Amino acid sequence: MFKRIAECFKSKEVRVKIIITLLLLLVFRIGCWLPIPGINSSAFATVTGENSFLTLLSSINGGSLANGAFLALGVSPYISASIIIQLLSIAIPSWQRLSKEGEEGRKKLSRYTRWAALVLAIAQAVGIVVGYSSVIDSSMLWSGSPQWLTSAIVVLVLVAGAMFTVWLGERITEIGIGNGLSLLIFVGILSTAGQSILTSIKEIVAGDMNELWKLIVFLVAVVVIFGLIVFVDLAERKVPVQYAKQIKGRKMYGGQNTNIPIRVNGSGVMPIIFASALLTFPQLIMSIFCPNSDAMTWYNTWMGSGSWPYIVVSSLLILFFSYFYAQITFNPDDISKQIQQNGGFIPGIRPGKPTSDYLRKISNRVILFGAIFLAFIALVPNLIFKGIGGNSALVNAFSATGLLIIVSVALEFDKQLEAQLLMKNYRGFLK
Question: What is the dihedral of CA 166, 27, 230, 314, to 10 degrees?
């Protein structure tokens, strides 16, 4: 990957795109530290650290939520909106047709996603301001300002920051390299991890040698888990397909052999995000409206992260959402129909329904292995990291969701760089 980056910098066109991408990411990081007038940053950091959902949200957004910064909400409203739109595009027939209409249909769904992200950003901003009104300090805005006005300005700034983050991500996708929103999440997680490692190094320099061994064992475990994620993420089951020779006029078409790749982890990190969002959503609601209630205490005790009921329910949800998301991304009936229309067949399998049944059987087996892998990655590394010890910020920074996102985005960025180099070579050949 580093060799490919060096080759990209030799090309002026690709180099300009990389520089633009880095500058926009720098703007994002600056926005993660710009404080919002009216929020007591130290008090808000304490409140965020006490809520596991807000801690996870802050780690994905590069610590901006804990800082009470302009981009505190980050990309989380857009991610939630995109998940909702994807689910509705299956349930609503008209939206399902839009998803199959090509570029124009995708533009309309993207517009719906932006509006949904705006609504969710307003809801999250109002929930944070209402649930954590103790962190709103009117004197930090201007002396003598009413509390309601300060709260309204904080909500407005939070919503504006969320939509500005979406705009940044779209600009990176349009004029830079890679998927902009994925890169923003990638940079946010890496920055949180870097800050956590720096905190551990400061403790080591202060004379805590026990922290040194914890950090070494922790980093070795991270490297091993990274290797496992990359190995499974690149694994795929190839189904061979042969196309019969067809004579049309005076030309002969077909007669080639190809394959259908079925990825082991085709759903990526989405099942983990769905499962964690479903389990942490009640905790978020209760922490906003009834933070000191018995229901909140019970939920933290029995359904908190790391408890055995949480592990069992989370594993079952990951298995369910893995199969559910696979139905969205891989449809054996459509693939079987396309193969038959193009004069192809799977060796030993008759075209039509037998082909779709065969593909569905293979897909279910591969998805089962991928779902078990996701459940393992989502739960076991967290237990290992907590068993190793170290500061809690380090454990939160290297969560299973974060590790999967880092690997998937890095691999996708490498593919984008390779595609840019291929385009450059083709243009040079044509010239």
Answer: -50
**Residue 68 Ramachandran class (φ > 0 left, ψ -120 to 50 alpha, else beta):** left
- 237: tokens are 């089951």
DSSP 188-253: HHHHHHHHHHHHHHHHHHTT-HHHHHHHHHHHHHHHHHHHHHHHHHT-EEEEEEEE--EEETTEEE
Average pLDDT over residues 307-316: 77
- Contact between 222 and 403 under an 8 Å Cβ cutoff? The reply is yes
Radius of gyration of the chain from its Cα atoms, rounded to whole angstroms: 24
Q: In terms of Cα–Cα distance, which of 299, 305, 336 is closest to 401?
A: 305
Please give the pLDDT value at position 129. 81
DSSP 8-class letter at 92: S
Output the six-digit token pair for 201: 């190094």
Beta bridge partners of 237: 262
Q: What's the count of helices (H) and strands (E) in the chain, helices before strands?
A: 18, 5
**Residue 76 in contact with residue 57, Cβ under 8 Å?**
yes
What confidence tens digit (pLDDT) does each residue in 221-238 have? Answer: 778 888 888 888 888 888
Mean local confidence (pLDDT), 274-297? 71
How many CB atoms lie under 10 A from the CB of residue 328? 14
- Name residues whose C-beta falls within 8 Å of residue 255's C-beta, 6 or more positions apart in sequence: 243, 244, 245
Q: Are 225 and 399 in contact (CB under 8 A)?
A: no
The alpha carbon dihedral of 142, 146, 149, 150 has a sign of positive
Question: Residue 323 and residue 303: Cα distance in Å, rounded?
Answer: 24
d(CA 290, CA 283): 10
Measured N-to-C along each axis, helices 400-430 and 270-289 cross at an angle, to the nearest 10 degrees, of 130
Cα dihedral 360→361→364→369 (10° resolution): -140
d(CA 401, CA 268): 10
CA distance 363 to 385: 33
Question: CA–CA separation, 169 vs 27, rounded Å?
Answer: 11
For the stretch 64-122, pLDDT in tens is 877 778 888 888 888 878 878 877 777 777 877 777 776 777 788 888 889 998 998 88
252: three-class secondary structure by DSSP: strand
